[in-house]
Design a protein that fits this description.
By secondary structure, the protein is an all-alpha fold. It is about 75% helix and about 0% strand.
């Protein structure tokens, strides 16, 4: 696959040509997620979830919570979600779910929330393709140029387990993991050229991280049991003593279980959207879905789950609000399922299991501190690798659409954003700069001050 990335990117269509069932699925799912957000049962933005407890308990207003949601989400919607969707022709959660978070919380009436969500779904379905066609008709086609982002995103993302291992377990183990991953990438490119080169490497890297973390926790627990035995204490008493989450957040778990049918409906909808292959759960996944590599997309999103389960579980138990995509397991499951009916059933069952198992997962995480720490390091590593990949890919896109002038404009906008205190979040700043840079280059062309770069 690696040898064909550039060709695939150049030849792939980015039009969002949705069938009627796909259009209806997007609109209905947006209505449902806005309604669930209005009820404060779930939001997609992990940063907003901790604020939901005060809203649920009436200690803050709907307008104040809406302001928090908008402030934490706007940069991702316009700087990452929209550019990624336009450049790949694949929908993503920042474009679909973050706006429905805001609209649902904003809505003063229960009946209005799904209506606003449906309107946003219609904007996505009917507006995105029009914007896509308009952009491709411009003299400087910055959307096609943005497909240059695919190679750095796909390959640099492969390194996130190495970064996580290095941060948590030191340079030696991190170096070993790096050598192993590099060897596996080279071997995959040589032996299986039609397979995503980072698939095996990421799998082994994540398994190494989990293995190191579990081994550390088991050693620590054995040492603690030996110490209790030496002191004459009953080792069996440690179960409750060492479990800080055993009786914590039970009210939140109970609240979520009361709405289990609604969560099952949500899981069915998200899994169905993923099964239709018009939706990708992440940056790398969007490009893989666009290329038709659904197996590779499933692997990438499956590995991401390990970094987000502890965060989503603990924030859900603390706030009483779950994640719109749950633990995101429905993404990879949906990509691989052969038909939509099976996706609906599997998505509903997965969400049912997740909601019912929340308390148990909390207790397990309380006993495995190193595994919890691994999830933190995984999320940080994913952000670090993607930030570099997106920045590098955006500069490649700038070069493709405007040469040195394009790099000057896009890189300058990115640096200006940094100097101004990151008005746009760093992850979204570079793609947003490509869009703005593309508009600037088109204006310069119309003023006869710029000649587009020939591809």
């Amino acid at each position: 696959m690696s040898g064909n990335l550039a060709a695939a990117a150049a030849g792939s269509s980015t039009e969002l040509g949705l069938s009627l069932p796909q259009q209806l699925t997007v609109i209905v799912l947006c209505a449902l997620t806005a309604f669930i957000s209005h009820l404060a049962l779930a939001v997609f933005n992990d940063g907003v979830r901790p604020f939901m407890l005060d809203f649920i308990q009436g200690r803050t207003t709907r307008s104040a919570t809406t302001a928090v949601s908008f402030g934490l989400s706007a940069g991702f919607i316009f700087g990452l979600g929209a550019p990624m969707a336009l450049s790949t022709g694949v929908l993503n959660p920042w474009l679909v779910f973050l706006p429905t978070d805001i609209l649902g919380i904003l809505s003063p009436k229960k009946w209005l929330a799904p209506l606003l969500g449906a309107v946003w779904g219609a904007v996505i379905v009917f507006g995105l393709n029009g914007a896509n066609g308009l952009a491709h008709d411009l003299p400087v086609d910055f959307l096609t140029a943005m497909q240059q982002m695919s190679t750095p995103i796909l390959f640099l993302f492969t390194l996130f387990p190495v970064l996580a291992i290095t941060k948590q377990f030191g340079k030696v183990r991190g170096g070993i993991a790096g050598v192993v991953e590099l060897a596996l990438v080279v071997a995959t490119m040589k032996l299986w050229p039609n397979v995503f080169a980072g698939a095996v490497a990421m799998a082994v890297g994540v398994l190494m991280l989990i293995g190191f973390a579990v081994a550390k926790d088991l050693r620590q627990r054995r040492a603690e049991r030996a110490e209790r035995a030496a002191q004459g204490d009953d080792p069996a008493e440690e179960a409750d003593a060492d479990d800080p989450m055993a009786s914590l957040f039970s009210a939140s778990a109970t609240r979520l279980r009361k709405h289990l049918p609604l969560f099952m409906l949500l899981g069915a909808g998200v899994c169905l959207l993923a099964q239709m292959h018009i939706f990708g759960g992440g940056e790398a996944t969007s490009f893989l879905i666009a290329k038709g590599d659904y197996g590779g997309a499933a692997q990438v999103d499956f590995y991401r789950v390990f970094g987000f389960v502890p965060l989503i579980a603990t924030t859900a138990l603390a706030s009483g609000a779950y994640g719109i995509a749950g633990f995101t397991l429905v993404y990879p499951i949906g990509y691989l399922l052969p038909n939509p009916w099976l996706a609906v059933v599997c998505g509903a069952l997965v969400f049912a299991v997740e909601v019912l198992a929340l308390s148990w997962i909390g207790r397990v995480l309380g006993r495995l501190p190193s595994v919890r720490d691994s999830s933190e390091h995984l999320r940080g590593a994913i952000s670090d690798s993607l930030q570099l990949a997106i920045l590098f890919g955006s500069l490649m896109a700038a070069n493709a659409m405007g040469g040195g002038l394009g790099i000057l404009i896009v890189g300058g906008l990115y640096l200006l954003n940094e100097a101004m205190g990151r008005v746009v979040v760093r992850m979204a700043a570079a793609p947003a700069a490509v869009l703005v840079g593309g508009i600037i280059l088109n204006v310069l062309y119309w003023l006869d001050l710029f000649i587009p770069v020939k591809s």
